[in-house]
Amino acid sequence: xxxxxxxxxxxxxxxxxxxxxxxxxxxxxxxxxxxxxxxxxxxxxxxxxxxxxxxxxxxxxxxxxxxxxxxxxxxxxxxxxxxxxxxxxxxxxxxxxxxxxxxxxxxxxxxxxxxxxxxxxxxxxxxxxxxxxxxxxxxxxxxxxxxxxxxxxxxxxxxxxxxxxxxxxxxxxxxxxxxxxxxxxxxxxxxxxxxxxxxxxxxxxxxxxxxxxxxxxxxxxxxxxxxxxxxxxxxxxxxxxxxxxxxxxxxxxxxxxxxxxxxxxxxxxxxxxxxxxxxxxxxxxxxxxxxxxxxxxxxxxxxxxxxxxxxxxxxxxxxxxxxxxxxxxxxxxxxxxxxxxxxxxxxxxxxxxxxxxxxxxxxxxxxxxxxxxxxxxxxxxxxxxxxxxxxxxxxxxxxxxxxxxxxxxxxxxxxxxxxxxxxxxxxxxxxxxxxxxxxxxxxxxxxxxxxxxxxxxxxxxxxxxxxxxxxxxxxxxxxxxxxxxxxxxxxxxxxxxxxxxxxxxxxxxxxxxxxxxxxxx
Length: 521
Prior knowledge:
Layout: E1 5-10, H1 14-24, E2 30-36, H2 72-77, H3 87-129, H4 135-140, H5 146-161, H6 168-186, E3 195-201, E4 204-209, E5 214-218, E6 222-226, E7 228-231, E8 252-253, E9 269-272, H7 276-285, E10 291-295, H8 323-336, H9 341-348, H10 352-357, H11 361-370, H12 372-379, H13 384-396, E11 399-403, E12 405-412, E13 415-422, E14 425-431, E15 433-436, H14 446-453, E16 473-475, E17 481-486, H15 492-495, H16 501-519
Parallel strand pairs: 1-2, 1-7, 2-3, 7-17, 8-15, 9-10, 9-15, 10-11
Antiparallel strand pairs: 4-5, 5-6, 12-13, 13-14, 16-17
Organism: Lentzea pudingi
Protein name: FAD-dependent urate hydroxylase HpyO/Asp monooxygenase CreE-like FAD/NAD(P)-binding domain-containing protein
InterPro entries: FAD/NAD-bd_sf, HpyO/CreE_NAD-binding, L-asp_N-monooxygenase_NS-form
């Protein structure tokens, strides 16, 4: 067994950052390599926004990055547990927590180096006072390569202490350092210090697993060998207009979180989707433009709201039962506490994974088709301020909700004619911009598609992600676990609720525990 494990985290947004934090806190002799094409480690796309009107959809008291310290984020922010803070603040918190954890993981190394230096100086002093019979021979005796060790330590410390920057010069500097680091990894050499962290700004284009380790192929810097990999692609975005629009249409925003939204010039905007992302887009865009929002059911997420009086006591959900029996249980619980339905759903949260697993595949499909949209708008609720503002915009006519789906898109000057089909018939909207806010990308992107194609992974039966063990290890086509972990969105098919911070941080802690258990074997 190597002195320490090398773990590569592919994707350093929120999910990858949470995985990195928990791996570093596990107390392992570890070499952790974070790979992300953006070169920005911590916030990811969803929490990079600089718009103060984009608020977290969960109260601060439930957003801690640390599974064993639920109040960590609220203390960092100096706010109340029930406050809803800007999403950009949470991105800064993730980045700072990662850096602080990296520094803490390196502290034992610095203490060890200091003790070693003291020992070396003491030995040299004693040697100076000891008569030597062959000074020339002593001079030729090999000694520890102090210069090389110091150089390694300085490199590791600078990698740990460096604050991510987004300006072009910092990005170029990071890229050069990353390419040099990745090139050294390709040779299989490892630094000698107990815990080091390396950031690589590059794109992972390949990932293979064997019985002894993994190989991550990077587009610019070649293969990187490791003991384990953590695949954290984030939620991504689907593209419902693929094939309906010319490629690179300048007025189609396929991912509203990839960059700041453009100025609309007052032209009407059609947003695809009526969920939480649409609400954030509307808060920003409806200042200048009328926003049309379309989805199959045309439902807005419900707002968070603090209940009054004692929290209802919910009996434990049945350990066995069909979808119909589980739905009957939820209806009875809500009927008994009609003003506290939010508490009822929140108390179901610890049981969600078990309830999902006890449904067979046809029942899971039936739930998603018939109940999923109602579950989403009640379970994944909006910040009260955001919901109130969007309702005001709806009342003012600046946000207009449509039930239906897009059937055709045609150019119209600088904008588009968009045909909608819904329960009340068809209609055509003329808009200047299209914004995609439909939510999750189910295939995980090219890297995951390649894993499925070569048999390293297999999709879950309902097509929401990939099959995994309870500890997050990906199952191959034979149903055997490999050395690739995943967390978050790619586990939706097996866990259903797998994209909120409380679920992701628990999965990150489980990954760290599994890696630690492997290290002690």
